[in-house]
Amino acid sequence: MNKIIEKQQLSDEVFRLKIEAALIARECLPGQFIILQVAEDGERIPLTIADSDQKEGTITLIFQTVGKTTHLLAELHERDDILNLVGPLGKPTHVEKVGTVVCVGGGIGVAPLYPIARAMKIIGNKLVVIIGARNKDLIILEDEMKLIADEIIICTDDGSYGRKALVTAPLKEACEEREKPDLVIAIGPPVMMKFCAETTRPYKVPTVVSLNTIMIDGTGMCGGCRVIVGGETRFVCVDGPEFDGHLVDFNNMMQRLGSYKKREDKDHEQCHLEIAAKKKANG
């Protein structure tokens, strides 16, 4: 079991947990993830490692409550144990000095983007960070990104903070500059990553995306995380999670992810009802 050392609520449905996991903290690299299980009879879900500390022997997870397991995870407290946690999994980000790197994060995707952006900056790249969310309350890790970025751009759908624009707007502007980016890394909802890749395609700017698909075992055995990349089947858990965004079949991936949307929405609603009932019962 792995003990929760710190818990912080970043917004209504976004939480940060610092967890004891010395072996994972020692081995993990930017871009890798873990799979955890909260209940004995519960599902296994993947979460990207948002940060790690080898000296403390801890890893940090940032997640949004979207289904039953993430709601159960959010109900845990400091000093509670997570039943099962395995990692690091997946291939780490290829970090090298290329020149100018634009990191684009949408919503909760800013969490896995942070260690990658930091690694790109440490190695000597110029770092531009674009953060997008539906509204101001959903912007996360802005202060952390400001400490490492040469330039940071905030976009909100409703204009409540930063620019009223989608992240693709400043991304396109960057691609149109005389010195266009040498690399773009986009992490967020599938549709956001799809359109980031389509934005950079005409300018032939290399674009990496990190995929978060349905995952069960994390070893490539179950096939639940399969995606089509360059016309070939790949498994996110062992071949990814990062792929060339210009080669990913996003439509196929989104169709597969949508297969369980009705069930996910039902579980999400049920969890909120149960939480409300507990609060009422406790006065």
Walk me through this protein's architecture.
The chain has 283 residues and is an alpha/beta fold. It has two domains: 2-89, Translation factors (Elongation Factor Tu (Ef-tu), domain 3), CATH 2.40.30; 100-210, Nucleotide-binding domain of ferredoxin-NADP reductase (FNR) module (Rossmann fold), CATH 3.40.50. 30% of the residues lie in helices and 32% in strands. The strands form three sheets. Strands 6-1-2-5-4-3-7 form a seven-stranded antiparallel β-sheet. Strand 8, helix 3 (110-122) and strand 9 (126-133) form a beta-alpha-beta unit. The longest helix is centred in the last third of the chain and has 21 residues, at 261-281. The chain is globular and about 60 Å long. It starts with a strand and ends with a helix. 42% of the residues are buried.
